């Protein structure tokens, strides 16, 4: 459920600035430099570069390929959850493009076998819950510090959900599993550990179902950049702008808005779709107990704005003035 906004509790311009300067958004800005250094284009050999996964045409569908790396501090502070997230976030990337997972591999560095054990336990438990096999990788238990990266292979049909196909006039929908809690003191909203595996697998299957049934054409999973930060990446890739209604964002009653906007949910997606399809999409999430709502609309302005309950607006990003990740229809691209 949504907690009503107390308009006295924050300054909208300050909140927009907080979103721009958030650590998760800053990390996404690093992508822009990689774009230039590698000379990547927004399209490379028919593969869109800058999406949640590389989508490689294969027969009548697509192979999906993605990788996630984890900061040393996260691995050191919560090694079990770091391993668990190695599976979970990669599955989220595949689902965000309308695909289903095939297998994962991992690359693990640790000081010794004892330090590696909780990471491996997290990987093993998540793989079992989500029903995806770990088929290989690289291991070094004589390293100076703990590091982890996990890659995934998936498959999607001919209808992809992409970051490049949001269009002016679309509704912007957020779908988030609120049946969780923060892993304090971190910004990770965990609605996955302890949940039944069948429910987790069924929830992820919603996304490829939407793609296959033609109900949605663009999506991104909500990343460490947060809800609005993830929307920025979607808008930039598609070359559009939009207005987000902060009061409409699904949010647990007890969580302050400012914290929720920088949270990383274990199940969270932004979807861009035609307004006539919104009721059917919201109903599918509701059937599985997942909070979903229309949180705004897209336009041709190439400016991302937020609006509070009183109707005031603030600009979060103007893509005509400055890129965020450097990916888009008229620019370069990089892995997200």
Automatic annotation (TrEMBL):
Keyword Metal-binding in annotation: no
SUPFAM superfamilies reported in the protein's UniProt record: PurM C-terminal domain-like, PurM N-terminal domain-like
The protein's name in its UniProt record: AIR synthase-related protein
Pfam families in alphabetical order: AIRS (PF00586), AIRS_C (PF02769)
Chain ranges of the PurM-like C-terminal domain: 208-306
Domain of life: Bacteria
Keywords from the named record: Thiamine biosynthesis
Limits of the PurM-like N-terminal domain: 50-154
Lineage of source species: Bacteria, Pseudomonadati, Pseudomonadota, Alphaproteobacteria, Hyphomicrobiales
């Amino acid at each position: 459920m949504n907690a009503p906004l107390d308009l006295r509790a924050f300054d909208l311009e300050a909140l927009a600035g907080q979103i721009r300067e958030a650590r998760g958004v800053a990390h996404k800005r690093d992508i822009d430099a990689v774009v230039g250094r590698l000379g990547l284009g927004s399209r490379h050999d028919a593969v869109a570069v800058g999406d949640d996964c590389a989508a490689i045409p294969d027969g009548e569908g697509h192979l999906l390929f993605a990788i996630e790396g984890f900061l040393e501090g996260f691995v050191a502070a919560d090694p079990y959850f770091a391993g668990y997230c190695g599976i979970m976030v990669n599955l989220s990337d595949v689902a965000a493009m309308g695909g289903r997972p095939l297998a994962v591999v991992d690359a693990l560095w640790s000081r010794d076998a004892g330090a590696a054990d909780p990471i491996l336990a997290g990987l093993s438990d998540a793989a079992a819950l989500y029903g995806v096999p770990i088929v290989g990788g690289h291991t070094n238990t004589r390293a100076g510090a703990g590091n982890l990266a996990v890659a995934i292979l998936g498959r999607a049909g001919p209808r992809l959900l992409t970051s490049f196909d949001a269009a002016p006039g679309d509704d912007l929908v957020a779908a988030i599993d609120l049946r969780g809690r923060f892993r304090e003191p971190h910004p990770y909203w965990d609605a996955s550990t302890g949940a039944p595996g069948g429910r987790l697998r069924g929830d992820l299957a919603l996304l490829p179902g939407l793609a296959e049934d033609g109900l949605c054409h663009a999506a991104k999973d909500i990343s460490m950049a947060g809800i609005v930060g993830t929307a920025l990446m979607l808008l930039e890739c598609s070359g559009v702008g939009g207005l987000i209604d902060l009061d409409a964002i699904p949010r647990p009653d007890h969580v302050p808005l400012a914290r929720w906007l920088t949270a990383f949910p274990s199940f969270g997606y932004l979807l861009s779709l035609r307004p006539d399809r919104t009721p059917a999409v919201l109903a599918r999430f509701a059937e599985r107990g997942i909070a979903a709502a229309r949180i705004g609309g897209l336009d041709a302005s190439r400016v991302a704005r937020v609006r509070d309950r009183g109707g005031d607006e603030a600009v979060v990003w103007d893509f005509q003035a400055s890129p965020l990740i450097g990916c888009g229809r008229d620019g370069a691209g990089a892995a997200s």
